[in-house]
Design a protein that fits this description.
Region (Disordered): 1-28
Keywords: Membrane, Mitochondrion, Mitochondrion inner membrane, Protein transport, Translocation, Transmembrane, Transmembrane helix, Transport
Organism: Neurospora tetraspora
Distance between the termini: 37 Å
Number of helices: 5
Number of strands: 0
Family: Belongs to the Tim17/Tim22/Tim23 family.
Shape: extended
Oligomer: single chain
Helix content: 55-70%
Largest sheet: none
Structural class: mainly alpha
Membrane topology: Multi-pass membrane protein
Order of helices and strands: HHHHH
Radius of gyration: 25 Å
Length: 197
Amino acid sequence: MSFPGMPGTGGAPAGGVGAAPGGFDPNDPNIKWMQKAMESCFAKTVMSGGAGFALGGVFGMFMASMAYDTPYHSPTTPGTGPGANPAAAGIPGYKPVDLSSMPLKEQLKHGFKDMGQRSYSTAKNFAKVGALFSGIECGIEGLRAKNDLGNGVAAGCLTGAILAKNGGPQAAAVGCAGFAAFSAAIDAWMRMPSEEE
């Protein structure tokens, strides 16, 4: 199957005049529009949020699957933790049911429900962090008209402060410092020259 612009078809010849290494003409208005759209802050923010949601979902599912090595009770267990019913605490003669004593079908039902809830919660958090950091970094890069380590550090600081704002000024300062340091370390590692060069 061939499409216009592919090498060896009726489109632009491979390596011909005006053809990019992939066989696409960089002056094609559709290619320019796609490049401009992909480089916009909105697209970067949406893509980072989507990637964060996917990664967070997988990470949350993995972490939830590891949580079953500790004792876990059915949803009628008194208390306030996940899978607990605070109203059951006031029932006279109430005895919690161990999840391991329940039938396999019930165990799986409760396990998958809890795994889904934890996975979704982690996915939302990762999406929020990814979109926030990417959007702020893109905005700073546009304002400074530079692509250097400072953009990531400033974006990390702002992201950490925004995420920790409900904890007060001290928590915001710690969040700022922590995210800035992490961002600087990752950015410095990503900008290191590869061994092949």
